[in-house]
């Protein structure tokens, strides 16, 4: 970490600051320039409050030279992490399509979708039981009953299941869920991160709506610092001024994350775009960008044929998308 | 709610959709135009999933005509809400300065600051016991002990106390806290919102880092829908591309919220700007914009005189700020 | 266009508004609801100032039902536009790699790069002569001399040339440039758009740094409304809060633009990301998303070997990228 | 400027870079750390391309220690600039209300508004003659005739006049305009900036829709580097994800600009918010934040009484706002 001191700083002020930094067990290397003095801080700077330091009267600016995350950092773990989710693997060359309905609605629905997406090549079944909803008046999901239906679909198809945990009081209920999703709105729910960090479950950590890549990795670090190394990052679009899509899918994060971290990266084009027509081209683009997996909303409910145009795809369209993703993956191999 | 159908929609498709809408207990008023058909939906549309409807193949776009929030809506509650927080009142012409340190560190510190800010006119003491930190390696606050110290400061000064609740398992411990803060990162932690909605405590609901005003009001609606009407909204800056400040303080939200809702609005310029020099002008501007309260970080620790430049103010600077805020409030009365 | 009137609107106010709208040659269809009145405006609404209408005291909100752009709209021109740029074609299934250095520096440099990129499959040579620079003290490009050098490179290789026009007083000088680039910062320089609209040159219109897709199409409409139909849209990243890349590449815009407009879409991953390592994965992803062309910065200056890591690629890396793009294009055909 | 080199950098690579930097007439101070090497660059770094340097293979990051702007920098010009605009002054304690209609429409209109706003205390008349419009089909302003009408209003009231210049070919026509406005969309139209920099006219430089404060100051530096020191900065809202206002008014920029620069800062709440109801509270807040002037849209057209609700205020409402601004300015003096 480097701290640049303002030009008017007195030697006494500088020494006062240096002493304070040394009390934090840091070596301080002082470099006096014509205009400014630069302090190089050496040691474990992950505990230094960068904002506090930067806001001191005599400090012009502060810059990290090393990343604030450790266990998720590729520097300290050069090999790709490979995560086992039941019979599926993600990362290190292993790729998985994750598919299923937005909400679990009935046994027929979830088993029907599960069979269809398995047929089309999906490796993991997703489905919402507890649903984060902006409005308290909207349907909040089937809850426990939804988990039961997911288990039934797993039994019928053999697919491992993935569903979102919102409330840490439900953790026991998730004991046999194959992959626990932490949603975008909970990416900085630190107590929830710590609790899932104490389990041995694979965690799908969605990016917060306005989270930087560094903040996202810090949230993964929260989970890993409690002992759980089975983390999969999931890009689902970020909030920008553009209104043509629900969110802006940031595919650049895929190669960036692969450089910074050893964790696998999955892309969810359904939630990012909010429009069925955009799901297929963005899924193919995600595969081309190097994603380790793609998560797609699929529905299979003839009674709601009206919903064909939603961000959900029919099984047929999903099968077509999955084969195109496979072709692109072959092409860039 | 208005739904515009695409030009190629067949009568059968239209009727199918209308039937589906009517099954949701909505009246549907059909208006056929040359190019498009417009459906007017009348009734309780707060349960309609606007995104789902908008994503249907035959629907071009959907628009809400009435707001999705009810209990926080000024339309249904024209008078300003006035919230009692111990001896203080906020809203409906009642104004309060809320002040205190970022983190509670020791009995001397918190009592010292509490006495100083009471002297300068603060009505409520704030201080962090459980701290949301981006890094798992950063100091996470004194926790229970911090709550104890806040109680001691309340006893010493008579000031009601406000502190952040992050984990709903701690709710019992907060039984005698005068105002519970829900932080920006938890603004859409819906289970936490529901739990504090079941208490009778005043809730200070901070705006999420990239939350729209409507989403913020929907989160307040979550609390109120469980029975707790004592909600104070707190603007603390939103995330933008500008890097000169930590966040961009959105003061326009003050008059907007006063038009849309009956709830009081507090502004926190310390966290929004992250720079002590900006706190005073932004606090005065917030008062001029009509804020019902202002929340300021104040420290009082001679051992850390270095930190003078942080976003925290010294008691002296806070006293000066408080008197300028009062002058502006008098001026615009 | 639909205007929703507020609930308290009197019949006199409504009639006053309707009369005003009818004076603009619009048919007005009135639909009275229980809570609100909805006006449907039929006719040429492209001249209606939507913001003015929406800000009237009695108007709750306004919504366009049809797009404000006409000539660039696919509805009125269902076939893909194919643009000829010298020997190259873009659009309607024709794909082109556009490559070259950020700035034209010398004859050796530009001819060297031109020969290398032609060899690797580029169809068009790009290079900056007049450079938009944030600082008045930075090198502003070789200007006229740079154009001369581009002509020399065209003569040596046969590649058509593309370079940026910033000042409409230079238009004469650009008479034999094969494709004129309008930069991101000039996307809403409306007088410049009108002037290039009066030429018969292909125009590469870059997206503004914080431009919506609709604003971008409106800028293309400015050019086309003056008679020039040879427009190519170029996505180059948008401004967001994320700092890991210079800008956020919005690949979703490719399928969206293909739905809304008949104009071809090119993607520039070099400027969007600002990092050489990200250029190749994002170029391949752009091809997968359906882009009609890709624009890449390539340098070829052994004296500046240090710059290898910049957003520019060496000819070798470009050749590798070009072949991977080709493979993906084959795969998704 | 500080450059941090990556840990794997060889001495040869480092020396190569240092030699390159020294050829740019910079002193380079090398500080070898355990993990990284830090280069301190001393001298005129305003010509160094920070992005190029930062993108070199061996460079981890680059940080400016001094600002890239000089002539607009308060460090080199500690006293506030005071700008004379006809009979009005702005800056250094001089405050001016600038008011007038969005577009000049007729002699009656502009003289009527001019008399009304002078009566209410405005010091400068504004009005659009050449209008930047998103759509080529929208009314583009009266042009030359609009300038004539503004001159007539000046003659009738004595108020200096301010209007927007979009096309540098119109510069001659603006020879007697008292203050030339450069609009938000042209903030980085560098050729236009250079041309107005060669005049001796006061320039009102609006902030670009997604411009950082530093980019804005660099655009002012463009003007000043050509010799014109009469620059007034005008905040008019920035583009964010929030849709409740047209743009987000960033009042924090007022104290920040006052710290970084000697130039006066004016705030335009009319364009920022787009809603008449928000203009008055945001104008008062701007005054409280320390603005040197406020720019307000005022209309005076009984035939368009319908428009009362637009972002424009009636003269009566403007007079009320002006007196409240004055009271707040007195209060914070």
Report on the architecture of this protein:
The structure is a homotetramer of 333-residue chains. In chain A, strands 7-8-9-10-11-12-13-14 form an eight-stranded parallel beta barrel, surrounded by five helices. A four-stranded antiparallel β-sheet of chain A has the order 2-3-1-4. The longest helix of chain A has 18 residues, at 315-332. Chain A has ten helices and 14 strands. In chain A, α3 (107-119) runs parallel beside α4, α3 runs parallel beside α10 and α5 (190-197) crosses α6. Chain A is elongated, with a radius of gyration of 23 Å. In chain A, 33% of the residues lie in helices and 18% in strands. Chains in contact: A-B, A-C, A-D, B-C, B-D, C-D. Chains A and B meet through α1, α5 and α6 of A and α1, α5 and α6 of B.
